Amino acid sequence: MNACSLHVSGTRRYGLVNISRRIMAAQEPSPPSSLEGNKPGFPKKILANNLEDKHLCNSCQKILRRPLQAQCGHRFCSFCFYKLVSSGPQECSACIKEDLFEEPTSILKQGGVSTF
Ligand SMILES: [Zn+2]
Ligand SMILES: [Zn+2]
Which UniProt keywords apply (predicted)? Predict the structure, then answer.
């Protein structure tokens, strides 16, 4: 008897784990807390004032959303940055544009960033 009920509760626990895993997986694409970081920058028109380049993403050219600073000092939305480097280290397009490409730090890669 005892052995039987133990076995049943064990099975039940397994089922619960499976269900909660499925729920977490289903929520993963858009959890409310990180929804903001899942997009490129804010459109410039939301701010009337002049914007300095340091407030703009070097990828989407919009207002930085959850900004990251690459080793070279250029800033990107975390969304844009991780999109850029998702296929591997990338040359920094802003560095290329500014003719700083000979700098070794112009390669963007995961981990080579700091938040501020
Ligand atoms: Zn961006
Ligand atoms: Zn750069």
Answer: Metal-binding, Zinc, Zinc-finger
Q: What angle do CA 29, 34, 40 make, to 5 degrees?
A: 85
Task: Kindly give the distance from the C-alpha atom of residue 92 to the centroid of ligand 2, in angstroms, as a whole number.
Answer: 5
Query: How far is the centre of ligand 1, averaged over its atoms, from the C-alpha of 62 (Å)?
Result: 6
Return residues with CB closer than 5 A to ligand 2 (ion).
72, 74, 92, 94-95
pTM as predicted: 0.54
Rounded distance between C-alpha atoms, residue 14 and residue 29, angstroms: 25
Q: Report domain extents, the chain.
A: 1-30, 35-115
CA of 29 to the centre of ligand 1 (A): 19
pLDDT by residue (tens digit) across 34-43? 455 688 898 8
